[in-house]
Amino acid sequence: MQFFTTPQNQLLPECSKNIPSLPFQLISSHLQTVEQYIAKQAQAFDPAVSSYIAYACHSHGKRLRPALALLTGGATGGITPAHVDLAVVLELVHLATLVHDDIIDEAELRRDKPTANAKWGSTTSVLLGDCLFAHALSLSTRFEERDICRSIATAASDVCTGEIIQTQRRYDWALTLEEYLQIIEKKTAAFFVMAAELAAKLNGSPAETVAACSFYGRQLGVAYQVYDDCLDIVGSEETAGKTLGTDLLKGKLTLPVLKLLKASSDIRH
Fold first, then answer.
1. Are 226 and 255 in contact (CB under 8 A)?
2. The pLDDT of residue 20 is above 70
C-alpha cells in the first residue's frame, strides 16, 4: 500500500542538497520523495493551523530515521512504496519530539531557524507537537500489516518515557553510565530500532534478519545520541545550526559529563 501519490517529476528541487554521503546517495530519489510527502502534510490540517505544521515540517534535517528505513529495505529485498510511507511516518514522529524537546530545553534555534517555541511560545508549540504525533499515528493505521501501528506507538511511548526519566534524573550525580545508556536507548534508539526492524518486516524477512536489523538500529541510535551529547558540549552553534549547551544548563548528565565525574572521582581517591 502507498499512502501518497506525488509524481516523481514534482519533487522539491532543494532536497538534493541534503543528500550528504554515499549511503544517502544510494537512496537519494526515495529520500526526495519522502521530503515531498513530508512537505505536503500541512494540507491535511485545518487552514488555521496548517502554517504551523508547514513550518515544523519544512525542516530539511539529516533524515536519519527515514534513511535507515530505506537502506534497510534495500538491503533486505528492495525498497517498496510501503518503505517510503514508513519513512514519512517515522520522521513526522521525530519532528514532533523535536518540537517538544525545544520547549523543554528552551532552545531558540533548530537547523538555523527559530524554533517553534521561540516563534510562538510553549503553549502553541506543545499543541503543535501533539498534532504531529497524532497525525503520524493516524497515518500508521493505514498499513496493511497491523502490528506496524502498534510498534510505532510503542516506540513513541518509549521515547517519551526516556525523556521523562532523563528529566527526573537532572542534577542526579549518582546517575551511572548504565542508567544513562538505558535512557538514550529509549529516548533516541527506539525509533532507529523501528526504522530498521519494520523495514525488514515489510519485506517479509526471516526472524533472524529482523532481529539483526533491530540490533543494528539500536546500536546506531545509541551511537548517534552519544555523538549529539558530545556536540552539545564541544560543537559550534554556527556549524550545528541549533542551540547548544542546553544539556549542561538544564542539568542533563550525558556521557562526557559522566566520564568527567568518574575521572575526577578516581583522581580524588
1. yes
2. no
Task: Using DSSP, state whether 113 is helix, strand or coil.
Answer: strand
| pLDDT at res. 4 | 59
Instruction: Count structural domains, the chain.
Output: 1
Q: CATH no. for residue 145?
A: 1.10.600.10
Separation between Cα atoms, residue 8 and residue 30, nearest integer Å = 10
Residue 84 within a domain: yes
Domain of residue 239: give its range: 19-268
pLDDT over threshold 90, residue 264: no
Q: Tell whether 88 is covered by a domain.
A: yes
Is residue 30 within 8 Å of residue 79, measured between CB atoms?
Answer: yes
Joined together, the cell numbers standing for residue 158 give 518509549
- CA nearest to 31, candidates 79, 98, 97: 79
Nearest to 103 by CA among 188, 163, 169, 191: 163
The reply to whether 5 falls in a domain is: no
pLDDT at 1: 54
The pLDDT tens digits for 221-254 are: 999 999 999 999 998 877 777 888 889 888 999 9
Please check the confidence at residue 79 and state whether its pLDDT lies above 80: yes
Q: How much is the pLDDT for 59?
A: 67
Question: For the chain, how big is the Rg over CA atoms in Å?
Answer: 19
CA–CA dist 95, 60 (Å, integer): 11
Q: Round to whole Å and give the CA distance between 206 and 159.
A: 27
CA torsion, ordered 131, 14, 90, 239, to nearest 10 deg: -90
pLDDT exceeds cutoff 70 at 3: no
In a domain, 252, yes or no: yes
What per-residue confidence (pLDDT) applies to 60? 59
Coil, strand or helix: which one is 163?
helix
Can you tell me the distance from the alpha carbon of 235 to that of 119, in angstroms, rounded to the nearest whole number? 24
